[in-house]
Amino acid sequence: MWKGRFAKETAELVQQIGESVSYDWRLYQHDIAGSIAHARAQYKAGLLTEEEFSQIESGLREIEADINAGNFEFRTSLEDIHMNIEAELTRRIGPAGAKLHTARSRNDQVATDTRLYCRAEMEVLAAGIRDLQRALLDRAEKYAATVVPAYTHLQRGQPVTVGHHFLAYVEMLERDLGRLTDARTRVNVSPLGSGALAGSTINLDRHGIAKELGFDRVSTNSMDAVADRDYIAELIFVIGLCGVHLSRLSEDLILWTSAEFGFAALSDAHTTGSSLMPQKKNPDVCELTRGKTGRLLGNLVAILTAIKGLPLTYNRDLQEDKEPLFDSIDTLKLTLAVNAEMIAAMEIREERCRAAASDPMLLATDLADWLVRQGVPFRHAHELVGKAVAASVATGTPLDQLDLATIDPAFTSDATSVFSLETALAARTNPGAPSIENVRSEIARWNTGLSSN
């Protein structure tokens, strides 16, 4: 493609380090779509005859069909997907194929291809997030009233329900989906027509090309258009943060399925055994999800590091954007799918949850609130309950069986009325609080919202 300027063939090692077709081949559908739109603009501008445009479009469709069927040979000597397709097109249809690159550079071509690719994959990721939300919502609905301890510092804190717990992850995933949707507005911008960095003296209809390819608008600065990889970094960030949320869910389930907690049981189909210890049932999906999150965050660091020191405009360093992008998308798609399947098959061991939630210490804050309602300032109430807890621990007497009046006269005989999980949960009616009524209302709201998506 640059033989006019160079007298020697590119060295074999340079070809090895410079080729990208071994992984950017997956852009082929988007490259072909962009090329057809570009050729159509050339035809409308009088640069191609109707016959030449027809040859180009038919030739590109045939190449696409061959790639789909696995009958296309990619050549690393041609570096990338763009030149592989263009060279094969010219071989098949002759001189018309050599006209395709008029008023276009690989710089704006690859930017167009990756934007189209990101846009398409974002739709798949969004669907995967919705599927996982539905699986979590199904479990939340089944166990809406199952009381379980909630934790801070991995110490028992206050009672909630399993439904409330799972709805927390539905909320996290909704934010991920919102970020994905928002990022799409910055992805869906057409750089085609920006050329290598300064456009072209042959002016094609950029708006027409953008419309054909489904872009919302065209880029407004040719230098930024070919140098910009913010949209890739942003997408990888959104993917990474979604991975962090999945990792937190995984950690909860790893704890919940342990013998020490025993709150949940995963299906045999989503766990593995041990090659040595026959009793083991390991939550490998959760552990792999947790582990792959590090990979997603590494990809984010990789892309940010690749672009942080680049002068305008295009630099070959930008070739390093694709492998982190492809890997992050592939990893999250698989992780979302397997987690949705695993959650849908998971069962909660309600008796273990009830046993853990029966710990009266979970209602220590409710006891302090009871004192407040009797007119005791909260800080003093907190101190008095703290003394009661200390006495409970020291004597081995459950908090709800302690003679609280010996701690302070503020504890009247009806103070122990707070030691009821049903009463405690029913009192938590503020928006966002875990009363069973609130939880069921939220489940109904989410069911309505997700059924329309």
TrEMBL record:
One of its GO terms (molecular function) is argininosuccinate lyase activity. InterPro entries: Arg_succ_lyase_C (IPR029419), Argininosuccinate_lyase (IPR009049), Fumarase/histidase_N (IPR024083), Fumarate_lyase_CS (IPR020557), Fumarate_lyase_fam (IPR000362), Fumarate_lyase_N (IPR022761), L-Aspartase-like (IPR008948). Residues 4-298 form the Fumarate lyase N-terminal domain. It is an enzyme of class 4 (lyase). Pathway: Amino-acid biosynthesis; L-arginine biosynthesis; L-arginine from L-ornithine and carbamoyl phosphate: step 3/3. One of its GO terms (biological process) is L-arginine biosynthetic process via ornithine. It comes from the Bacteria. CDD domains: Argininosuccinate_lyase (cd01359). Residues 362-425 form the Argininosuccinate lyase C-terminal domain. One of its GO terms (cellular component) is cytosol. Keywords: Amino-acid biosynthesis, Arginine biosynthesis, Cytoplasm, Lyase. Its EC number is 4.3.2.1. Coiled coil: none annotated. It holds the Pfam family ASL_C2. It catalyses: 2-(N(omega)-L-arginino)succinate = fumarate + L-arginine. It is found in: Cytoplasm. Belongs to the lyase 1 family. Argininosuccinate lyase subfamily. This is Argininosuccinate lyase. It comes from Haloferula luteola. The gene is argH.
